[in-house]
Amino acid sequence: MNLMCVASRLSRGGFPSLTKGFKLTAFQPHLRRTTVTLAGESVQRVSVEEIPAVGRKWVGRWLFGCSGMVFGAVVIGGLTRLTESGLSMTDWHLFGKRPPWSQEEWEREFAQYKSYPEFQMKNSNIDLQEFKFIWWMEYGHRQWGRTIGTVFLLPAAYFWHKGWFTRVLKKRVVLCGTLIGLQGLLGWYMVKSGLEKERFQEPSDIPRVSQYRLASHLGMAFVLYSLFLWNGLEVTFPAQKLKQITSQARNFRKFAHVTKGWVFLTALSGALVAGLDAGLVYNSFPKFADRWIPSDLLAFSPTLKNFTENPTTVQFDHRILGTTAVCLATALTVWSRRGVKLPPRAYSAATALGAMAWMQVGLGISTLLLYVPTALAAMHQSGSLITLSFAIWLTHELRHIKKIPK
């Protein structure tokens, strides 16, 4: 008996034993979603729109791949900053431009760089070969960003056409695409701040990008990475549910979210450290030279200006935030081993978060004591993203621990 016959008999009162207690609210065979209302009970929507297994597999791989591409962009961006290459390209094109091929084209590009503050005030002694290195570093970073846009957009269009996105995932895909576009614009806005000649008038000025724009650029990259990772986990490894939710488990979940937020805040403070070269101010630990509290902690006026523009204060804050973050992560790990009932994978996530937090602190201290070597500093920045990844994994595994059933 086909579906239209069933609908006809239901509308005429057929199948009385089946229709008792039920009310048919919508039945349209040409739609992909059917809604059934249970009379006498709370309303419940039953969806027959399911992503096929092959769709979940490829959508999950695509989301994890995009998160990996964003991770790579953060690493390459860190290397670009550490090698002081970010201001070598003094123009921006939406779809990029081909690199110089001939000696004449390289000379023209170098001459353009010479007219900006970084060369005039800092790099006046570099030759063409040295310029080529920093130019290729920045070019690679920009092209990687454009590749992310392509890797995101083309599969997204195909999966959307195939119907492999749920209604919620469609909204998140649109959000991710918007953030990718804004990230590219914000990247150029950041670079532009280091090319503005009016910002560098005094001989003591150091040509560099605005630390505020750098923090915004890195922060948006972290948000984009988090979205891709969370949705990849949701599609590929749905969070496990508990048969019985306890108040202790709910408190653990809240604490895990606080820790995740604190890790994110610590990473943002690291962007301010990078933007002001604050890692080169005091290269001792745990003291600042011979003092626990540096004498120039609040040297700027007004006082609030110190927290974003005073290298000493910025480094001090980053140390405090990092120390607090490792304490929070350690507390989560210990708590998870003290008998709290959690989903099975949450225990592994909590342990991984605690271990990575301590490794990140070790990388940070080593970077400081060794005067910020490029390789170690890049590992420290990557470590912040890995630490955040474990925090995201943990909170994802706890997503069903919300209300205690009555």
SSE diagram, text form:
Elements: H1 3-11, H2 16-19, E1 22-23, E2 37-38, H3 53-82, H4 103-114, H5 117-121, H6 128-162, H7 167-193, H8 211-236, H9 247-275, H10 306-309, H11 311-336, H12 344-369, H13 374-397
Antiparallel strand pairs: 1-2
Question: What keyword list fits this structure?
Answer:
406 residues; transmembrane helix; mainly alpha; disordered N terminus; transmembrane
Question: Could you give a short description of this structure?
Answer:
By secondary structure, the protein is an all-alpha fold. It has helices at 3-11, 16-19, 53-82, 103-114, 117-121, 128-162, 167-193, 211-236, 247-275, 306-309, 311-336, 344-369, 374-397, and strands at 22-23, 37-38. The protein is built from 13 helices and 2 strands.
Q: Would you list the SSEs in sequence order as H and E?
A: HHEEHHHHHHHHHHH
Helical segment tally?
13
Number of domains: 3
Strand percentage lies at under 5%
- Alpha-beta content class: mainly alpha
